[in-house]
C-alpha cells in the first residue's frame, strides 16, 4: 500500500467522541499539505464518512451540497458535528459541520437512499479520448518539476491523475479551451464499502474541477499571482463504481466572471456508465489573464 493511500485512509478513519447532544460528534486528522491549508476534498470526504456513521447501513449517500466557509489549518484535527435532520421510509438527510478552533470551515447537507429500481438513462461518455495507459502518470509528470509542492504532490497524492489533453501545472499547452478530461484512480486497493468509495470520489472530485476555468484563460497552477479557493461544491452519485479502478472525469466551465469561475464534471467508469456528476464554483483571481 502506498504512503499516499495510507494517508488518505487515515483521513477517513474518524473517531466517535462519544458525545451526544442534539448532534453526533466525531474527530478526524488533517493531511499535511505544503501550503498549510486543508485540502477541500479531504474535508468533503471526511464529512461524508461522518454522516455515514449516523445512517442505517442499507442507505447509501447519493448527493451532497456543501459550502467552504473558511480555510482549514492542515496542522490541526477537525471536529465534525452531524445533525440527523430527517429519516423517512426511503431517504435520510444529514447536515455535517466541520470545525476548527470552534468555528466552521465547511457546512454540507447529504441525502441517503435505500437502493431502489427505476427508469434509467444517461449522457454518453466521450469515446475519442486516449486510454489512461497511453498517458503519463501524475507522478511521472510532477517528479520532473523542481518545486517543493510538485514534489509533495508526486509522492503523497492519494490518486493518480492523467490529463487529456495535458496537465496545466506550469503552462497551458495548445488551445485555450474551457473543457478537459482527467483519468483518476486511487493508488492502492480500497475496502469493499460502497460509501467509502463514494467518499473517495468526493475527495478526488475537488482535485481538478476548476481547471477548465484556468485552461480557458491560459492560467497554470504555477502562476505566482494566482489566488484560488473553492466556494461551494455539489455532487450526485448515480451508480456504484470502485474508486480504485480507472474512472474518466470530464469537466467543462460554462461561465466565469466577478472573480468567480463555475465548472461542471461527469465521472464515468471504463464501461461507459455515468457514475457521478459534480458542480463547483470557486474564487479565481489573477492580476491579468489572456
TrEMBL record:
| Summary of subunit composition and partner proteins | Homotetramer.
Similarity remark: Belongs to the C/M/P thioester hydrolase family.
Q: What SUPFAM superfamilies does the annotation carry?
A: Thioesterase/thiol ester dehydrase-isomerase
What keywords sit in the KW lines? Hydrolase, Lipid metabolism
Tell whether Amino-acid biosynthesis is among the UniProt keywords.
Answer: no
- The record lists the organism as Herbiconiux ginsengi
Can the keyword Lipid metabolism be found in this entry's annotation? yes
**Protein name, entry field:** Acyl-CoA thioesterase 2
Show where the Acyl-CoA thioesterase 2 C-terminal domain sits: 165-283
Output the superkingdom of the source species.
Answer: Bacteria
InterPro entries with a match to the protein in the record = Acyl-CoA_hotdog, Acyl_CoA_thio, HotDog_dom_sf, TesB_ACOT8-like_N, TesB_C
Q: Which residues form the Acyl-CoA thioesterase-like N-terminal HotDog domain?
A: 31-113
The record's GO molecular-function terms, alphabetically, read:
fatty acyl-CoA hydrolase activity
**Which biological process annotations from GO are given for this protein?**
acyl-CoA metabolic process; fatty acid catabolic process
Reactions the enzyme catalyzes: a fatty acyl-CoA + H2O = a fatty acid + CoA + H(+)
Amino acid at each position: 500500500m502506498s504512503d499516499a493511500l495510507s494517508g488518505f485512509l487515515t483521513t477517513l478513519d474518524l473517531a466517535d467522541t462519544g458525545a451526544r447532544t442534539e448532534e453526533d460528534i466525531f474527530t478526524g486528522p488533517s493531511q499535511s499539505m505544503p501550503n498549510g491549508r486543508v485540502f477541500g476534498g479531504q474535508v468533503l470526504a471526511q464529512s461524508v464518512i461522518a454522516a455515514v456513521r449516523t445512517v442505517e447501513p442499507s442507505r447509501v449517500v447519493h448527493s451532497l451540497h456543501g459550502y467552504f466557509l473558511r480555510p482549514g489549518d492542515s496542522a490541526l484535527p477537525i471536529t465534525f458535528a452531524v445533525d440527523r435532520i430527517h429519516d423517512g421510509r426511503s431517504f435520510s438527510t444529514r447536515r455535517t459541520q466541520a470545525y476548527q478552533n470552534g468555528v466552521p470551515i465547511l457546512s454540507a447537507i447529504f441525502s441517503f437512499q435505500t437502493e431502489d429500481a427505476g427508469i434509467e438513462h444517461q449522457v454518453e461518455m466521450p469515446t475519442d479520448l486516449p486510454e489512461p495507459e497511453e498517458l503519463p502518470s501524475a507522478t511521472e509528470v510532477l517528479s520532473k518539476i523542481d518545486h517543493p509542492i510538485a514534489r509533495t504532490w508526486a509522492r503523497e497524492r492519494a490518486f493518480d491523475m492523467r490529463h487529456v489533453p495535458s496537465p496545466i501545472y506550469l503552462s497551458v499547452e495548445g488551445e485555450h479551451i474551457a473543457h478537459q478530461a482527467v483519468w483518476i484512480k486511487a493508488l492502492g486497493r480500497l475496502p469493499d464499502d460502497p460509501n467509502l468509495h463514494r467518499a473517495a470520489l468526493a475527495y478526488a472530485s475537488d482535485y481538478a474541477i476548476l481547471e477548465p476555468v484556468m485552461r480557458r484563460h491560459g492560467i497554470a497552477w504555477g502562476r505566482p499571482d494566482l489566488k484560488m479557493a473553492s466556494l461551494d461544491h455539489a455532487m450526485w452519485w448515480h451508480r456504484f463504481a470502485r474508486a480504485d479502478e480507472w474512472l474518466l472525469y470530464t469537466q467543462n466551465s460554462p461561465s466565469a466572471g466577478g472573480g468567480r469561475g463555475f465548472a461542471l464534471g461527469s465521472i464515468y467508469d471504463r464501461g461507459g456508465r455515468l457514475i457521478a456528476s459534480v458542480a463547483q464554483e470557486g474564487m479565481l483571481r489573477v492580476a491579468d489573464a489572456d
